[in-house]
Amino acid sequence: MTTREQKDAPHRRWNPLLREWVLVSPHRTQRPWLGQVATPGVAPRIEYDPNCYLCPGNARAGGSRNPVYAGTYVFDNDYPALLPDAASFEVDQEGLIVARGERGRCRVVCFSPRHDLTIPRMQPEEVRSVIGVWTDQYRELGAIPWVQHVQIFENRGALMGASNPHPHCQIWVNETVPNQPARELASQTDYLEAHQKCLLCAYLVIEQNDRERIVSENEHFVALVPYWAVWPFETMILARRHAASLLDFTDAERSDLAAIMRSLTIRYDNLFTTAFPYTMGFHQQPTDGKSHPEWHFHAHYFPPLLRSAAVQKFMVGYEMLGSPQRDITAESAAAHLRGLNEVHFLDQI
Predict the structure, then answer these.
(1) Which H or E run includes 138?
(2) Which of 16, 33, 216, 346 gets the highest tally of CB atoms within 10 A of its CB?
(3) Distances, alpha carbon 214 to alpha carbons 203, 226, 238, 258, 295, in Å
(4) What pTM did the predictor assign?
(5) 179-195 vs 199-210: helix axis angle to the nearest 10?
């Protein structure tokens, strides 16, 4: 079988981070599409919304009032999913009815006082400022003795469950390592022990040699569609240097992280000429006080759009009962993103 035939045939791809298979069905892209492909109109840009509970000076949903902030603004979530004083308890009935108390904290980070200023629309120095705040928050929250994991994540757009359009992200911390980073921790640890090298360092070498799945790159970071991607235009940002967290980066690296985040998200917006929805998050080493030579800093982007701004990929049927499945190959998705203009479509109107 030729390489071309292999790429066109149904096959499974191995995700070494989560240690699970992904079914790829590229031949399905040949089937007729009868769904809606319309592009929604661009919403008017509003710099300040008097009804927004994240804009400067406005009252929040919980009753507190925001200061008239001029830069990035951080506050404790008014409706947190985790509490620092949660009761400690344990339930275990034959290993089947199992529960444990879990402490944590939740914060909100407003990127800018501007209601309409998303990451791809911000200037490089503004994104760099946000990264500085993320770094400080990771340091501060990770230093709490009982905190073992700091999760920085952004849900962009109502499609991803964002309750407010003002550009912001969240930070949740746990006293245990959550499921996904725990699986990645185990995979990276086992790979290091078996091969005496970092899993993602080794993977990045392959991608840099192949180059078929790379979307954007600069001196210190690479954005790519992972070989095992599940979502149609899923991407990862990988540090070129083996570094475990934001704390390990130099000023130049943090500036390059800001640059590649802008580059990638501008491409996302330009793909379907819309404010592209996604869930993004950094995976960094646990903050348990231990050395983690296995851990390699990376960011995940999980966007749901498939063929247009109005067509969404759903995880249903086989995906929920069998395994993840995709039709568009990682290589095809990377080619689409790589070929897009790095000037935001709104700047060209």
Answers:
(1) helix 124-142
(2) 216
(3) 12, 9, 11, 18, 21
(4) 0.94
(5) 80
Query: Percentage of the chain surpassing pLDDT 90?
Result: 87
Q: Classify 157 in phi/psi space as left (phi over 0), alpha (psi -120 to 50) or beta.
A: left
Give the torsion sign (CA, 196, 194, 142, 217). Answer: positive
User: Tokens 């509003």 identify what position?
Assistant: 46
pLDDT at 1: 40
| The Cα angle at residue 242 between residues 173 and 239, in degrees rounded to 5 | 75
Active site residues: 168
Q: Which two tokens stand for residue 174?
A: 């746990």
Residue 158 and residue 164: Cα distance in Å, rounded? 8
The CA distance from 298 to 204, in Å, is 11
Q: What's the average model confidence in pLDDT over 129-134?
A: 98
Give per-residue pLDDT as tens, 200-231. 999 999 999 999 999 999 999 999 999 999 99
| Rounded CA Rg of the chain | 21
